[in-house]
């Protein structure tokens, strides 16, 4: 297991759990949860500096970007233009090229707007960005994103923040079979076992925010997700037994008294 | 009294001195330059050059940074 690394855009990571930094009560809670989760990559949003309240704590003061890889996202963007503007600004803050593209199409279900997502992936890739793409669980669209130069495919398990877990295992399996790119389940997980299922399906990692940040005990949940991802990955690599319709005794049939 | 111009900083109107540079705005608002990106009228600004960027009436400045997000 020692050499089993998550490789994204030629960079090695030991942890296969990526966590979001939103929705925590405060920065201290966020920083502690990240630490407990063992995550080496965190997603961050790009927003206006608060000009009126200069004492507002800064994310960078709590989570050191030299130690933890920041993955700027385009959360809240509903078209390609907004997403490109956001990520160009993110790059300007300090050279971030590894980014998470997320173009939403509907304010209620928060499903990705895939046409705009695909367009943005093409442009960003040409501009030298390494684009990890939040997408729906459609194998055809995943293929198109791959062809457009995405560096990781990140299909949703279920709507963002819904906690429903993986709705369409079959599609995730198909995407896994067709791509050699890192496949990371992004959005919709609700509990640690959902992460284990994702890893057992052969995903390379999971991205979790709400399920940890909004758990009644975020620190404990951060640890639970850390362990769940490790368990799922080990289980996947171990090669599970075949399912059978009938029972198969675990103790020898011979020598019964 | 110095002549004032009107600019929009992060969505809010501000009256500033006519001969202000972008650097003056950054300094006045105690912006940590290494942790932000700056846009002037939707064009990204090279942070090294802000001392030589003079602001005009109706300029729109956006200063952004990273915050928590999923």
Write a compact overview of the structure shown:
Chain A has helices at residues 27-37, 59-62, 80-94, 114-126, 139-147, 169-178, 192-200, 210-213, 218-238, and strands at residues 6-8, 11-13, 17-20, 41-48, 69-72, 98-101, 130-135, 152-155, 184-186, 205-208. Chain A is an alpha/beta fold.
Give the key terms.
heterodimer; A: TIM Barrel; five-stranded parallel β-sheet; three-stranded parallel β-sheet; 9 helices; globular; B: 70 residues; mainly beta; Ubiquitin-like (UB roll); five-stranded mixed β-sheet; 39% strand
Spatial sequence of strands, sheet with the most strands of chain B: 2-1-5-3-4
Number of domains of chain B: 1
One letter per element, helices H and strands E, the order of chain B comes to: EEHEEE
* Shape annotation of chain A: globular
> Largest interface here, residues on each chain?
A-B, 36 and 26 residues
Let me know the number of strands of chain B.
Answer: 5
List the uncertain runs of chain B.
none
Strand content of chain A: 15-25%
- CATH names the topology of chain A as TIM Barrel
Q: What is the straight-line distance between the termini of chain A?
A: 42 Å
Helix count of chain B equals 1
Could you say which structural class the secondary elements and strand pairing of chain A correspond to?
alpha/beta
Number of separate helices of chain A: 9
Number of strands of chain A: 10
Q: What CATH architecture of chain A would you give? A: Alpha-Beta Barrel
Judging from the principal axes of the Cα atoms, what is the shape of chain B?
Answer: globular
Radius of gyration of chain A: 19 Å
Q: Between the first and last Cα atoms of chain B, what is the distance in angstroms?
A: 48 Å
Describe, in plain words, how this protein is organized in 3D.
The complex is a heterodimer of chains A (257) and B (70). The model of chain A has no long low-confidence stretch (mean pLDDT 95). Chain A is globular, with a radius of gyration of 19 Å. Chain A has one domain: TIM Barrel. The longest helix of chain A has 21 residues. By secondary structure, chain A is of the alpha/beta class. Chain A is built from 9 helices and 10 strands. The longest helix of chain B is centred in the middle third of the chain and has 7 residues. In chain B, β3 and β4 form a beta hairpin. By secondary structure, chain B is mainly beta. Chain B has a 5-stranded mixed beta sheet with strand order 2-1-5-3-4, with no helix packed on it. The mean pLDDT of chain B is 92. Chain B has one domain: Beta-grasp domain (Ubiquitin-like (UB roll)). At the A-B interface, β4 and α3 of A face β3 and β5 of B.
């Amino acid at each position: 297991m020692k050499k089993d690394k998550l490789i994204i855009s030629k960079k090695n990571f030991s942890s296969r759990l990526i966590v979001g930094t939103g929705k925590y009560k405060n920065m201290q809670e966020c920083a502690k949860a990240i630490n407990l989760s063992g995550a080496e990559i965190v997603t961050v949003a790009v927003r206006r500096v608060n000009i009126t309240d200069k004492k507002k704590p800064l994310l960078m003061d709590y989570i050191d970007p030299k130690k933890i890889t920041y993955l700027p996202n385009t959360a809240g963007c509903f078209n390609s233009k907004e997403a490109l503007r956001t990520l160009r600004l993110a790059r300007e803050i300090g050279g971030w090229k590894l980014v998470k593209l997320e173009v939403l199409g509907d304010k209620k279900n928060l499903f990705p707007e895939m046409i705009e997502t695909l367009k943005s992936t093409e442009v960003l890739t040409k501009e030298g960005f390494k684009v990890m793409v939040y997408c729906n669980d459609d194998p055809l669209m995943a293929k198109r994103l791959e062809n457009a130069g995405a560096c990781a495919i990140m299909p949703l398990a279920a709507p963002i923040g819904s906690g429903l877990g993986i709705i369409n295992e079959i599609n995730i399996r198909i995407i896994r079979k067709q791509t050699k790119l890192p496949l990371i389940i992004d959005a919709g997980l609700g509990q640690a076992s959902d992460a284990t299922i994702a890893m057992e399906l052969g995903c390379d990692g999971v991205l979790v925010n709400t399920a940890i940040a909004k758990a009644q005990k975020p620190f404990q949940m951060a640890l639970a997700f850390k362990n769940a991802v490790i368990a799922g990955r080990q289980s996947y690599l171990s090669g599970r037994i075949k399912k059978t319709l009938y029972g198969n005794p675990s103790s020898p049939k011979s020598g019964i008294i | 009294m110095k002549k004032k111009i009107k600019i929009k900083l992060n969505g809010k109107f501000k009256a500033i001195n006519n001969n202000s540079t972008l650097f003056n705005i950054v300094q006045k608002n105690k912006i940590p330059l290494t942790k932000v990106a700056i846009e002037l009228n939707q064009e990204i600004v090279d942070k090294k050059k802000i001392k030589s960027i003079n602001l005009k009436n109706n300029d729109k400045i956006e200063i952004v940074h990273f915050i928590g997000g999923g």
